[in-house]
Design brief:
alpha+beta, disordered N terminus, disordered C terminus, MADD, guanyl-nucleotide exchange factor activity, membrane
Amino acid sequence: ITANKRSSSNSRRFRSEFDNDEIRRKVRRMLGRCHIGLSMSQQVNELIDNVSNLNGNDIDLRPAPSRILQKQSFTVHLGTDNTGDMLFMEVLDDCIILRSVLGEVFDRCWFEKLINMTFCPKTKVICLWRKTDGETQLNKFYIKRCRDLYFSIKEAMEKAVSRMKGSLPEQELGGEFPIKNVKTGEGGLLQVCVEGICLTFENNKEFIDLQKIRKCTTQKGDIFVLEEFDPNTKQILIRKYKSSMADRICYAVLCVFSYLAAGNDQQQY
């Protein structure tokens, strides 16, 4: 007991003899060397500005972020069935984290990189489209609770938008975009609608039914790649069009698919 009293007395004596200006100087030097964000940095600056009014243990310790972090965890499999590698998908306030069964971080997807998201209750597959190195990447995961995972991510994204004190811009379904045929070099217009894609060039006009579209991605940030299934030859036809709005074209097509998928889900349930 005596040793504890002596230690407590020495600690109080050390704090009382430490100059407040020296505390401010050392803390501000530490702030300059670390990256804790503007919000937290402002709180620390307000604290050291009032350090002369603080005594003893007036400063409350903040809990570790990992202890107060709210997250939901789901067990998923890579691919379209349960034969794929098993992972744990954690839905956080600002991103999605994939962990291996050993707990190691396998992948991370920030919400601002997430372009589109759909799920199919029949196949129990959830599809996530995101931007990676200027290209649109599709990731498929098999999970029995695909509906719960979908709405968990959707709710987290909506909360993230509300924290930013803004809202996502409302866009009409589809749109018109200027393009250039990579193969022929001919310029034209690409129109996305609910029925499919209409390609208009100077000498010809072509319509691609939505049911024939198998996949759409981007390459190098300015090339829109469209994979079309030809029912006559039973082969996949790859079309490439150059456009500064390639990402927006891909997003518009994915939104149409998502819109139709949501309509089918409402009819089923």
